[in-house]
Amino acid sequence: MTWTNTKRIIKAGFMSFWRSGVVSISAILMMTIALLMIGTTILTSAYLQSTLGDIEKKVDVNVYLDVSATENDVLALKQSLENLPEVKEVTYTSKEDNKAAFIELHKDDELLVRVFDELDDNPLRPILKISAKDPSQYGAIASFLEHDTTLSSGGASIINKVTYKKDIIDRLIKILAGARKVGFSVAVALVLISIFITLNTLRLVIYISREEISVMQLVGANSKYIRGPFVIEGVIYGVVSSLLTLALFYPLTSWVRNVTGNFYGGIDLFKYYVDNFGQIFIIIMGSGITLGVISSLLAIRRYLKQ
Amino acid sequence: MIYFGNVSKYYPDGTKALDGVTLSISDGEFVSIVGHSGAGKTTLVKLLLGEDHPTEGSVSFDSVNLAKIKAKDIPSHRRRIGVIFQDFRLLPNKTAYENVAFAMEVAGRPDDEVASDVPHVLELVNLGEKMWNFPKELSGGERQRVAIARAIVNQPDLIIADEPTGNLDPINTYEIVQILKKINDLGTTVILTTHNKGVIDNLGRRVITMDSGRVVRDDVKGRYIL
């Protein structure tokens, strides 16, 4: 393929796109719908991931320790918990920290603060807050806390109470797994539908041009020369509809934020869209161009058989 | 230069389009092929263009055996032939100029040649003024002249005109035939298929008459007899 031919093919593609008017506009609108579906898939899965992640973070096991437990005992327990493979993080809140937090929380209630101040001893217990790597591992951690005697100092356990709501966590695990599965299936379905829409749209566009293709063959154009401009048109459809899609997501995500803002404190989709614009741009533009080119190639194939 | 040797063409539905046709056409001849619809004229043209293959027999164009031509060799074979159809077959999204230029571009001719030859050829068919019009803005006769310009611009060895005047009024018909004669006078072989008795009788050239897929007459200075 010489440079002259390449130049001619590119020019012919642009010209045909421009002169096809209504056909080009409808192809772009259809492809924009397809790309909107792909974009929506990206955004909703980001939203789902972040929301589910947030929920997971809120699940933890709180270990309330004895008032008498010494700092050393507590730190030893923290250390052995951190050594467990299931544990992601252990946060220690000392008696003093709890007191400070209590006073801060009730600072407007003078009486309560004064009563608290007059106590000789700090009645608040130190707390160890345990986050697991996976919510399904809380059971194992809880049973470790109940049964492992090495945790006690001087024979008596320093653990006062373990808050662990098995039913709720079990149900949550199921919901999270289900939500992920549904999210993934919906994403796959949406992407398949968008491929189908694009393929059929370009099939129609090329069907309209079937007479032209046969005329080109009669004049002696080879397959590459006939196919080229259609592929260029596919690229143009892809680029234009990607830009349109990216522009539409701006007001769309902003609208979604306003509607759902006070509904659930998950991520702000508008902010997510703006922050990850580079990546989303590449995905949408890449899908647009790839879909355009592959659909054109598939659609024109049957008309090029001699 | 063109030779049909005992050519038969059967279609899957059992139709016999050609039945043992043997004929040869020399360089520089002007041959008219006449016959009723379904006599086999268009099948003959299709075989010459490589659009279809004969069921039996051989078709050759110079040294090329068209019965066995490979798909990849068809485009270059077609660039040696200029074709004109009853329904013009112009590219609707291209102007008269671009339609003619397209034929040169597919033949790989450089830009400067395209820029100088296309206006020249369009002048020859009297369309210099309407070079930038789209086919839908041209009359039937004008469209057919664009098709002729496209057919001759690459200086082909052979022009095939398949019912070129079928959609035209008598004045346009006369003009188109005059142009074809001029092309032939300049040395290009012309094959014309037609239903038009007046055209054939005025030409006074070789006439091949076909009926039911067979050649029934072949006269050096023929008339339209059916």
Helix content of chain A: over 70%
Largest sheet of chain B: 6 strands, mixed
Query: How many structurally independent domains of chain A?
Result: 2
Approximate shape of chain A: elongated
Q: Terminal Cα separation of chain A, in Å? A: 21 Å
| Number of beta-strand segments of chain B | 10
Tell me the Rg of chain B in angstroms.
17 Å
- Given as residue ranges, the uncertain stretches of chain A (5+ residues, pLDDT < 50) are none
Oligomerization status of the protein chains: heterodimer
Q: State the largest interface.
A: A-B, 22 and 26 residues
Q: Could you say which structural class the secondary elements and strand pairing of chain B correspond to?
A: alpha/beta
How much helical structure, as a percent, in the residues of chain B?
A: 25-40%
Strands in their spatial order, largest beta sheet of chain A = 2-3-1-4
- Arithmetic mean pLDDT of chain B: 91
Please tally the β strands of chain A and state the result. Answer: 4
The gross shape of chain B turns out to be globular
Order of strands, widest sheet of chain B: 6-7-8-3-9-10
Query: What percent strand of chain B?
Result: 25-35%
Largest sheet of chain A: 4 strands, antiparallel
Domain FtsX extracellular (chain A): 59-146
InterPro entries (chain A): ABC3_permease_C, FtsX, FtsX_ECD
Pfam family, one (chain A): FtsX_ECD
Family (chain A): Belongs to the ABC-4 integral membrane protein family. FtsX subfamily.
